[in-house]
Amino acid sequence: MLVGRLLTREGPTPVVVAEGRVRDVSRHSPTVSQLLNGWNGNVPEGTDLGPLESFGFTCEYAGAKAVRLLSPFDLQCIKASGVTFAISAMERVIEERCRGDASKADSLRASLRDRIGTDIRSVKPGSADAQKLKQALISDGLWSQYLEVAIGPDAEIFTKSPPLSSVGWGDWIGIRDDSAWNNPEPEVVLAVDSAGRILGTTLGNDVNLRDIEGRSALLLGKAKDNNASAAIGPFIRMFDGSFTLDEVRQAVVRLEIIGDDGFRLEGQSSMSQISRDPAELVGQTIGKHHCYPDGFALFLGTMFAPIEDRGAPGKGFTHKNGDVVRVSTGKLGVLENKVTTCDQAPPWTIGIAELMRNLARRGLLTG
Predict the structure, then answer these.
(1) Could you tell me which residues are beta bridge partners of residue 12?
(2) Of 49, 214, 231, 290, which residue is most buried, by most CB within 10 angstroms?
């Protein structure tokens, strides 16, 4: 069973796909947030719009039709967890030490891979062994704020983007035009309601601007939260008796990048190598210290950090305008987007106030 959002002539519309048929549930739940907060596993009442394959969705950059896919989240806050894989922890340390200068990355990578990469894979975050490793790395002059969240008791949880700002399948995804070292981050995204229930999962691309964050971790907001910088979709697959959180724990997330210049890159991340269980990451996001009345989406992090040179030797990978990025798993489908700069991406115009006005005009707000 799938949950998503369509942009129709009337406006953003929550839908449920069951047994291959699309049902408009906006009269029952005008927002996906409301739908998930009241989720009981059954298909809500709604209008049958026909079989999913009849919609023939097209990418926004290929000339979208009257009905197109949106990000499946609306009023939910978009959260993300970082440094949840050993290889991503090492790459963050590299960014920090070379101060965002990609030309210095190779030499640092060679010197840190064996020492840090091997050690942090061997400990459970927050354990006594992790504390001992921390003291050893401090003594060796290798400690980093990124290793603190990689093996310490507290996960890195940050706000990736505001409600309604994420883009969906077939839309443009944005890279800042002042970034010269960046990459996609293919991830699994959890759908969580206001009570902390993990209800389903989808795919995401948590765009990473390595040069900006590498200059200072305090620039995380500038590096992560920009126009069209978070892509999610195509649908949320809801958990049921045959599809559970264990499927997420064993998922293999694949990435494909195809450039207009003939460049091609493929890679994959195995969720089995994540250092913190997805349920633990959710538990560190919501609780007595932080409530989310509209629920939230949670990116789980990635182990994929492309290092192959795309241009000058030693400069590593970075995006170019026109790159097509595909994130996929066998049980969640494919999230496809095309890279542009943040200032050239279609502007974000439907915020909370505009959404409420639209729903009111359609007579969908009651009580």
Answers:
(1) 7
(2) 231
Nearest-angstrom CA–CA distance, 149 and 81: 10
| Alpha helices, DSSP H, located in 86-219 | 86-97, 105-112, 118-121, 128-139, 145-151, 210-215
pLDDT tens, residue by residue, 161-204: 999 999 999 999 999 999 998 999 999 999 999 999 999 999 99
E strand or H helix that includes residue 325? strand 324-329
In this structure, the strands spanning 156-161 and 77-82 are antiparallel
Is the previous residue joined to 12 through a cis bond, with omega within 30 degrees of 0?
Answer: no
Helix-, strand-, coil-residue percentages of the chain, each rounded to 5: 30, 30, 45
What digits encode the pLDDT tens for the residues 156-169? 999 999 999 999 99
Q: How far is it, in rounded angstroms, from Cα 32 to Cα 178?
A: 35
Residues 216/308, Cβ–Cβ less than 8 Å: no
Distances (CA, A) of 320 to 41, 169, 174, 181: 42, 19, 11, 10
Residue 146: band (very low, low, confident or very high) from pLDDT cuts 50, 70, 90: confident
* Cα distances (angstroms) measured from residue 240 to each of 62, 160, 246, 295: 35, 28, 11, 19
DSSP label at residue 254: E
Distance of alpha carbon 53 from the chain centroid: 26
Q: Is residue 328 packed enough to be buried (19+ CB in 10 Å), middle (13-18) or exposed (0-12)?
A: middle
Do 225 and 79 form a contact (C-beta atoms < 8 A)? no
Q: Please state, in angstroms and rounded to a whole number, the distance separating the CA atoms of residues 141 and 131.
A: 15
8 A C-beta contact, residue 71 and residue 43: no
How many angstroms separate the Cα of 172 from the Cα of each of 76, 95, 336?
21, 26, 9
* 99 Cβ contact partners less than 8 Å away, ≥ 6 residues apart: 214, 215
- 45 three-class SS: coil
Q: Mean pLDDT in the chain? A: 89
Q: Which two tokens stand for residue 94?
A: 């590299």
